[in-house]
């Protein structure tokens, strides 16, 4: 199997998602692949923020709301990826639902690997409402690596 040429990794600024960035960066460094770091954010519409808080409960510290936190998130992720040896890194910030943003980015860059963390896979909310890793894996047209980032 040929090495991956373009890797897309999603981050929301959580420690868990940064571990997924680290894994994607290590793969990119090993294979010479382009790494595209993506952060989807929710536009600062108070109604949408409240819906997200209701869906996710009290653990919303990692939820990105508005473009400025998303810009900080990809800047931090890019610095981490570069330190780990990824040479060709691009950062993308887009408004929208995470899975849709990831899917569009994979298509836009003709990526052949999508990397996400496993946060939400084993939670009741994730099982009832879906989670980014499970939805991304189910809807992806390319290989998906779900990095074990939380227990």
UniProtKB/TrEMBL annotation:
Name of a matching Pfam family: Usp
Chain ranges of the UspA domain: 4-148
PANTHER family linked: STRESS RESPONSE PROTEIN NHAX, UNIVERSAL STRESS PROTEIN UP12
SUPFAM superfamilies linked: Adenine nucleotide alpha hydrolases-like
CDD domains assigned: USP-like
The name this protein goes by in its record: Universal stress protein
First and last residue of the signal peptide: none
Family stated for the protein in its record: Belongs to the universal stress protein A family.
InterPro entries: Rossmann-like_a/b/a_fold, Universal_stress_UspA, UspA
